[in-house]
Amino acid sequence: MTTHAIPASHAHAHAKAKRYTGIMDWLTTVDHKKIAILYLLAGLLFFVIGGIEAILIRIQLIKPLNNFLDAQTFNEMLTMHGTTMIFLAAMPFVFAFMNAVIPLQIGARDVAYPFLNALGFWTFFFGAVLLNISWFTGGAPDAGWTSYVPLASNTYSAGEGVDYYVMGLQISGIGSLLGGINFVATIINMRAPGMSFMRLPLFTWASFIACVLIVFAFPALTVGLVALMFDRLFMGNFFDVADGGNTILWEHIFWIFGHPEVYILILPAFGILSEILPVFARKRLFGYSSMVFALVLIAFLGFMVWAHHMFTTGLGPVANALFSIGTMLIAVPTGIKVFNWLFTLWGGSIKITAASLYAIAFIPTFVLGGVTGVMLASAPADYQYHDTYFVVGHFHYVIVGGIVLAVYGGLHFWWPKMFGRMLNETLGKITFWTFYIGFHLTFFVHHFLGLLGMPRRVYTFLPNQGFDLMNLISTIGAILMGVGTLILAINMLLSFRQPKGQLPNDPWGDGRSMEWALPSPPPEYNWKQIPLVRGSDAWWKEKMEGNTEMQPAEPLGPIHMPSPSILPFLMSVGFFVAGFGFIYHLNWLTIAGLLFVLLCMAIRSLKDDHGYHIYPEGVKE
Amino acid sequence: MSAHQHAEGHLPHELEKATLEGRNKILGFWIFLGAEVVLFGTLFGSYIALRHQVLDGPPPEHLFQLPMVFLMTLILLTSSLFSVFAVQAMHRQKVKVLIGWLIGTVLLGLSFLGLEIYEFVHYVHEGHKVSASAFGTSFYTLVGFHGAHVAFGVLWISLLTFQLFYKKLDTIMAPKIYISMLYWHFIDVVWVFIFTVVYLMGKVG
Hints:
The structure holds two protein chains of two kinds. Chain A is mainly α. Chain A has helices at residues 22-28, 32-60, 71-105, 114-133, 161-189, 202-233, 247-281, 288-302, 317-329, 331-345, 354-377, 379-385, 389-419, 425-452, 468-495, 538-544, 567-583, 587-606, and strands spanning 559-561, 612-614. Among the domains of chain A are: 201-281 and 283-333, no CATH class; 349-503. In chain A, strands 1-2 form a two-stranded antiparallel ribbon. The longest helix of chain A is centred in the first third of the chain and has 35 residues, at 71-105. Chain B has seven helices and no strands.
């Protein structure tokens, strides 16, 4: 599978290279490293928007009977905060790292489908923009990120807000699905010679499993959103009880997608952690095979437990018991991972950097989130926790304490590889402590607020119920997290004052996987010669044998590259326009948008892209 | 996958799998079909959950006319057979035969669509509408999604057939034709389930 077959365009070896510069370069790029940067920038943009929404929510809750936000605006804020953070911030962060790292880690020149990769990014981006436009058109969606019916039906959400939710997520969902398919195929087909599955770096493994989850989870969301759209726009009756519909159906469809979605996000975070810890403990990852096994098991069980979000819906004791046990089982493979990380650190010569601080802090924080997860998995007890701040505390411990810490750690770790510059370590450590302390201040108290009975998603509370002080602490924590993120942003901007191209290939000195064998940042073709992988931790093995680069697996020769294309951008514009058509019942606009998409697809089919060739140093043209 | 054969001007037997790009396309398309299985699985699930909610509309056992649906099934299954012949012709490098089978596939697909549109119009006259009941909504969503897939397949295969008239059948064209045929088989398989779950189960109540 990993051999190098004839490029499709042998006959066109001298096709002229079509290159763009400036903004057109970014709009037309199909280079996975540039798409990674696009994903990262988009993710940061929406992370900041979602963060501002969070801080506004917390300011409203700083004291009892506050009137900083009215109830309607508060509902919109909490809906958009959740939707933005999950779909528009965490997802692109995950895809940013996958794009930046996976082809380098498996010894490939690019992903399996560079064109599709670009299309995935642009559909995601235009879907995300469409969703956020709702703020300026008379009201954002306000039915929660889970958009439960009947609340999200025409009867109770009359404006266009929920329509924006439906169309925005539908379009950005196309992008996620394409990205998922792309990376599954890339990891199966594009591995360098010698890179067997059980030699894959853990981040690649985790992303592989996460992408399989994307492929099997996102279509359920697609159908759910279509059904909601039919109900809202075309008088359908999926969820309309008066006409025979069933509201529980939405809950099932949403969580059949929604529960795997949290694993789609956390598995790559586990992967990032498993890359950072061995480098800074200067010790190979403990229990590699059991780590892989645990990933697969978590993903499998993750598909079986969606109804634990619905214990109070009334599914009956048998269903509740089964879903309860299934959920608790997930603690076993997760526990395997936690102990493996601890054993990786054990006896290592640990170097404290910003990246390793995030990775080490991840472990206890995520365990806290896991423990409350097992508490929530107990169906009888869940009747007490359900819809209280206990749940809010739980999922923020796994999402912020898990995914965000891993993403921040990964940013510090791979920033030099992505941009050819280091982030400042002192600022990095200041960010870490500010953010980490702010995080615990914000969310630790939520558990107790929940146990005291404070309901989630309510815009204010009465004084003298024991809520006042904890809410004040929580808001102070949220502001600290904001300050931490601001310092990180400054750190990123400052890093661009360093000249490019000064960094060694392996700036941490202890890199193990193959991305550290390449220049920082790598050339657009990644590998002058596809590397030969001679063991797990391929780059470490070469270093231990005194080599300064990977052994080549092919002779020097011209390198075939795919041509840049504006079509992915244009197709996404077509979807965006069609989305507006649906929201405002403008059939001509919908049809025009979709026809434009079909036209772009036809052009893509008719125009054969032969790509072009690069002649690296030492290769005759 | 011998690069040597190719270099000497002989095309390999399975043209679609001769290049890494071709193999990537085929693998990726299988993964995409996996996603489509979940998509239709969810639609089937919704339909099964809601199919008894007929309200005042005509119940399925009065509505569905099995002879016509059987004819549609026959047409689609035959078109799937034609697409097998098309791939066989492609492996033998017989471009004209390939074009013939592809046109046959498209024509059968079009006649299926024609019958489906006729069927839907008939149902609407009987009072079976999207807005009539949850049964109506879930029926039209499921069967309509399949119909839209057929329509897309017809457009796609037509566009490829058109290209065969002026392009060489090479390692770029072959994977495109191959995956469009995979898609067509998939649509056929989905219809077999629709025939069983929607129409046959609808008849027996």
